[in-house]
C-alpha cells in the first residue's frame, strides 16, 4: 500500500486516520498529517502513532495519496501553497463539501489525479459511508487503491459527481441528525426515570440494531416499522405523535437544506 498524507487533522481526518489505523491497512508509520496547532498534532500522534508536521509541503513530499482535509474556506489557499509539489503520479483525495473536481483542477491543473469523496465520521468506528468520484486521470488500479482505504473502515459507493450534494444530505451530514435523535430518545427515557448513561446505551443500541435490520433484512423500512406496532399497543401511540409533529417531513426538509447548502457552496 502507498503512503498516505493528510493536510488538516481535524474531526474528519482524525476519523479516517483512526479507521485506517484500526483496520491495519497500512503501518501508522506510512501516514503523515499536518495541522495548524501543536495540540492537534500531539493528539493525532498520541492517538494513532502517525507522523506529524506543521508544514503541509512535507505531507505532499512524503505521500503518494494526499487527503486535503481542511475546511472549504481555506481549500484553495492550501492547494495553492502545495501545488508545485503535486506531481502527476500523486493522487489528491478531496473530502470537502462544495469543492467540485473542476474547482480543484482549476487550482492544481486538469492533468492531475483527483478523487472527490464524501465520507462521514462513523469511519472512526469502522462504520463509515463514503461516496467516491474519480476524475478522468485516475486509472482502475488507482481507483482500487483509494477504494481500499475507504473500504477499510466502512462501506462505499462510486457515484457520479452530480449526486454528491445528495450524499452530503443523507450521509455526510446525517450523523449529526442521528446523534440528535439518540439524544432526544435518551431524554425521553431520563424523563421516565432512567439514569442518563443507561439511557444512551438503550437508545444508541436500538438505533444501531434498527439500521442493521434495514441493511440485512432487505425488508422495506415501513414493513419493519409495522412489525413493531402491536394493534392497540404502545408503539402506535408514539408513531401517531411523531406523524402529528411532522417527523418525516422535518427530516426530508433538513436533508434538503443540507443538499441546497452544498449546491450553494459549489457555486461560489
Ligand atoms: N466533520 C465531518 O463530519 C465531515 C467533514 N467533511 C469535510 O472535511 C473537511 C474538514 O472538516 P473537519 O474535519 O470537520 O474540520 P476541522 O476544523 O475539525 O479540521 C480542519 C483541520 O484543518 C487544519 N488546517 C486549517 N488550515 C490549515 C492549513 N493552512 N494547513 C494545514 N492544516 C490546516 C486545522 O488545524 C484542523 O486540523 C471539510 O472540508 C468538510 O467539508 C466531510 C465529511 C464529513
Ligand atoms: O457540515 C459540513 O459542511 C461538513 C460536510 C458534511 C459534514 N460536515
Automatic annotation (TrEMBL):
It is found in: Cytoplasm. Residues 161-265 form the Pyrroline-5-carboxylate reductase dimerisation domain. It comes from the Bacteria. GO terms for molecular function: pyrroline-5-carboxylate reductase activity. It catalyses: L-proline + NAD(+) = (S)-1-pyrroline-5-carboxylate + NADH + 2 H(+); L-proline + NADP(+) = (S)-1-pyrroline-5-carboxylate + NADPH + 2 H(+). Keywords: Amino-acid biosynthesis, Cytoplasm, NADP, Oxidoreductase, Proline biosynthesis. InterPro entries: 6-PGluconate_DH-like_C_sf (IPR008927), NAD(P)-bd_dom_sf (IPR036291), P5C_Rdtase_cat_N (IPR028939), P5CR-like_CS (IPR053790), P5CR_dimer (IPR029036), Pyrroline-COOH_reductase (IPR000304). Residues 4-98 form the Pyrroline-5-carboxylate reductase catalytic N-terminal domain. The keyword NADP applies. Its EC number is 1.5.1.2. SUPFAM superfamilies: 6-phosphogluconate dehydrogenase C-terminal domain-like, NAD(P)-binding Rossmann-fold domains. It is an enzyme of class 1 (oxidoreductase). Transmembrane segments: none annotated. Pathway: Amino-acid biosynthesis; L-proline biosynthesis; L-proline from L-glutamate 5-semialdehyde: step 1/1. The keyword Cell membrane does not apply. Catalyzes the reduction of 1-pyrroline-5-carboxylate (PCA) to L-proline. PANTHER family: PYRROLINE-5-CARBOXYLATE REDUCTASE (PTHR11645), PYRROLINE-5-CARBOXYLATE REDUCTASE 3 (PTHR11645:SF0). Belongs to the pyrroline-5-carboxylate reductase family. This is Pyrroline-5-carboxylate reductase. The gene is proC.
Amino acid at each position: 500500500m502507498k503512503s498516505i498524507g493528510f493536510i488538516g487533522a481535524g474531526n474528519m481526518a482524525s476519523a479516517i486516520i483512526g479507521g485506517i489505523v484500526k483496520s491495519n491497512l497500512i503501518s501508522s508509520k506510512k501516514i503523515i498529517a499536518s495541522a495548524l496547532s501543536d495540540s492537534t498534532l500531539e493528539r493525532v500522534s498520541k492517538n494513532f502513532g502517525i507522523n506529524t508536521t506543521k508544514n503541509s509541503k512535507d505531507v505532499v513530499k512524503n505521500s503518494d495519496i494526499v487527503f486535503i482535509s481542511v475546511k472549504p474556506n481555506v481549500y484553495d489557499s492550501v492547494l495553492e501553497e502545495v501545488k508545485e509539489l503535486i506531481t502527476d503520479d500523486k493522487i489528491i483525495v478531496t473530502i470537502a463539501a462544495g469543492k467540485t473536481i473542476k474547482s480543484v483542477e482549476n487550482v492544481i491543473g486538469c492533468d492531475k489525479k483527483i478523487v472527490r469523496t464524501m465520507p462521514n465520521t462513523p469511519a472512526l468506528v469502522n462504520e463509515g459511508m463514503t461516496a467516491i468520484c474519480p476524475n478522468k486521470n485516475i486509472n482502475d488500479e488507482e481507483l482500487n487503491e483509494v477504494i481500499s482505504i475507504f473500504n477499510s473502515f466502512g462501506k462505499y459507493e462510486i457515484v457520479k459527481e452530480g449526486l454528491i450534494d445528495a450524499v452530503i444530505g443523507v450521509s455526510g451530514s446525517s450523523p449529526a441528525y442521528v446523534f440528535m435523535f439518540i439524544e432526544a430518545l435518551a431524554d425521553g427515557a431520563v424523563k421516565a426515570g432512567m439514569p442518563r448513561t443507561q439511557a444512551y446505551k438503550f437508545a444508541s443500541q436500538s438505533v444501531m440494531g434498527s439500521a442493521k435490520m434495514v441493511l440485512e433484512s432487505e425488508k422495506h423500512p415501513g414493513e419493519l416499522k409495522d412489525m413493531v406496532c402491536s394493534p392497540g399497543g404502545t408503539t402506535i401511540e408514539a408513531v401517531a405523535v411523531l406523524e402529528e409533529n411532522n417527523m418525516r417531513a422535518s427530516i426530508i426538509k433538513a436533508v434538503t437544506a443540507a443538499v441546497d447548502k452544498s449546491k450553494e457552496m459549489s457555486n461560489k
